Input
Amino acid sequence: MSENIEPRAVNCAILKGGVGKSTISVNVTERLAARGHDVLFVDLEPNGHASVGLGFGEQYKDEDSDDIGDVLLDDGDASPQDVICETDFGFDILPSTKRLETIEKLVESSNFADVRLRNHVVDPLLGTDYDFILTDPPAYRGKITNNAHVATQNLIVPLTSGGGSVEGFQRMMERQVTPLRKQIGLDILAIVPNRINARIDHHNNDRKLVERLNRDFADKLPEFSRVDFEAVDNGVFNGDLPKPGIRKDDKISKAYSERKPLAAYDPENDQLKRFDELADIVENGGVAQ
Output
């Protein structure tokens, strides 16, 4: 355990698939581990995208060995330590399993259905075995997603400029976050524009997203996403324009195909500074004001 660190669990979530939440979760986990923290990544996605991307495809497909269902369900007899695996990248993983959708149905019919992950994984491990626990839940409403919110009570929200991610964020706020806030403290640590590619001085969808976030959610934006649009439009930057958000980068997807986090695949990649800033936010419990 690291000294002088407040242990924290964080959920990277939005009710919209394809916005890069697994990529952000994995790379922030790796950046925290690179600082010497003990970190656990919990893959709650039924598709096992992150687990497979980190080289745990066999565990994902194995239906005979213990998995997260044997930890969460009443008829299971496994402890978290029985199913947690070490990665080659300085952090541990509780991998997903292809039977996770079945597990979710069983969780739904269990007593205290929304606190299973908190009671059986996060509370026993956070502050004792791990400084930080990061979860990657499904991109749809359900008991597993609710479990991740309740267990972590801290959110990182990724958004992209297309495909309805802003609407997915609004749905999550209306249908999950706001109702849960009546029962628990659920905080948004950061909102992260992701896969941004277009020039910020043109009126395109990327600009519309970043401009809206700067206007409506400035206190939740990492420094790398803050832009003075008046200065941009007045030509103050003399062509050296800001490049806000996590940028669209083929190296990030290539790292996945190589079964590695970005730092292990391309340690000089300029996007690592942005994942480092997100790691700062997790350590500090929010965006620095």
